[in-house]
Design a protein that fits this description.
Helix content is 20%, strand content 48%. It is built from two helices and six strands; from the N terminus they run αββαββββ. Strands 3-2-1-5-6-4 form a six-stranded mixed beta sheet, with helices on one face.
Length: 124
């Protein structure tokens, strides 16, 4: 009597393919842009920035000066997006600003966190 392992190996291969196809995909990205900037205006809900000097960009993709300026721009930022340095904000304040965005795919769906942090100009 001759035994063949081919059907058994095929069954294992199919089971592995099914298992891999039902596993949650993990896709993630992160980006950071650092600028010296001036706070143009601030209200209870928004602040307006003027990014002056590009310091650096970093992330899972290319974050050069052009990319960072496109992401940041001269625009109004919701105060709720400020993670750190809220006490430093005032019209005319010269600060270092860091814009960040972190994203990932979880089993429950996509997660995205973005915001700003501000430090005095002499701190990294």
């Amino acid at each position: 009597m001759k035994t063949s392992f081919k059907p058994f190996l095929t069954l294992i291969a199919v089971a592995l393919l099914l298992l891999m196809s039902t596993t949650a995909a993990v896709a993630s990205h992160w980006s950071e842009c650092h600028f010296e900037l001036v706070i143009v205006d601030i209200s209870e809900t928004h602040l307006t920035i003027d990014p002056r000097r590009f310091i650096r960009g970093d992330g899972s993709g290319m974050m050069d000066e052009r990319s960072c300026r496109e992401k940041v721009g001269e625009r109004k930022i919701p105060v709720e997006d400020v993670a750190d340095g809220i006490g430093l904000l005032g019209p005319g304040a010269r600060l270092q600003g860091r814009w960040f965005e972190y994203g990932a795919m979880t089993p429950e769906g996509p997660v995205l966190h973005r915001g700003w942090s501000f430090t005095p100009p002499d701190q990294p």
